[in-house]
Design a protein that fits this description.
This protein is an alpha+beta fold and about 150 residues long. It is built from five helices and five strands; from the N terminus they run βββαβαβααα.
């Protein structure tokens, strides 16, 4: 797993993104602030969706919004690792997905104008988008193969 935040216009609001590296599945949710406590709760909520899977680790950047990493580990059992500063390729899948998200939510977008329904719409579009790395299957198809085969 990899996690990150996408920052809104004037550093107000953010979107927490989490993705599974093996399938490319994306989970995302809007937060009002990048405060560690709020980001912690959203990460825990997003990880609950993947509770049937044996998720052991998540890699994030060194942002202050991940300061409560120990609490996340205690509540979910997922160990949090930090990428080295300025080594974005250590979280390449997440950086790629953030680029895909920016096709729907460009930089300098005021996140207060974006609804939770639109966030779900973007998540669905990206999870159903075929990827070359998966033989032109979507992350959703890749996840279904893992679950049902």
């Amino acid at each position: 797993m990899e996690g990150d935040t996408i920052i809104g216009k004037d550093h107000k609001g953010a979107i927490v993104t989490i993705n599974d590296r093996s399938t490319g599945m994306l989970k995302m949710k809007k937060v009002n602030t990048r405060e560690a406590a709020e980001v912690e709760q959203v990460i825990i909520e997003l990880l609950e969706d993947w509770s049937p899977f044996d998720i052991r680790t998540m890699t994030v950047d060194n942002g202050k919004e991940f300061a409560n990493h120990q609490s996340i580990t205690q509540q979910t059992g997922v160990d949090i690792y930090f990428a080295k500063p300025y080594h974005s390729w250590q979280r390449g899948s997440n950086e790629n997905l953030n680029g895909l998200i920016r096709q729907y939510i460009p930089k300098k977008t005021d996140f207060s104008l974006i609804s939770d329904e639109y966030i779900c719409y973007v998540e669905n579009k990206i999870n159903n988008r075929p990827r070359k790395r998966y033989g032109y299957h979507s992350p959703l198809e890749k996840m279904e193969k893992l679950l049902f085969n």
